[in-house]
Each structure stands twice: as structure tokens, then as C-alpha cells.
Amino acid sequence: MKGRHLAGDSGKASTSESISEVRTKQVARTPTDEEIRLRAYEIYLQRGGIHGFDEDDWLGAERELSDGNH
């Protein structure tokens, strides 16, 4: 009986570790410059191609991609 109990515990531990590892990877995800550049360009086009907001577009794209909202 003790052996079955230990096996159950180790299964739970590995499951919780897997979930923790997945969450860490999701939180630690940093978008590449290319991903940010492409998203910033999409934002620029959605705004009608109006110049002068490149920094706002870049920061918005970076924020979206880091949060996983895109």
C-alpha cells in the first residue's frame, strides 16, 4: 500500500511541476525584434499609415506581444 501511495504522490508532483514550467515559459516569453517590427507595422497600417507615431506603435506592439494579447 505504501508503494502505491508514493507513486500517486510523485505523479502529482510531476504534474504540478509541468504546470509551473509552462507558466514560467509563458511569463518569460520575450518577443523578438522582428515580431515587434511586424506588429508595429500592422498597427501603423490599421491607423491609416499616418506618420509620426513609430515609437508608440513599437511600444504598443511590444506590450501586446509580451502580454500574449496578439
- How many distinct folded domains? 2
Give the averaged pLDDT, no decimals: 78
Low-pLDDT runs: 8-13
Major sheet description: none
Shape: elongated
Structure description:
- The chain has 70 residues and is mainly α.
- The chain has helices at 2-27, 33-46, 54-67.
- It folds into two domains: 1-30; 31-70, no CATH class.
- It has three helices and no strands.
What does the secondary structure layout of this molecule look like, with pairings?
Layout: H1 2-27, H2 33-46, H3 54-67
Helix pairs in contact: 2-3
Task: Give a brief description.
This protein is 77% helix and 0% strand.
Comma- or semicolon-separated keywords:
single chain, 70 residues, elongated
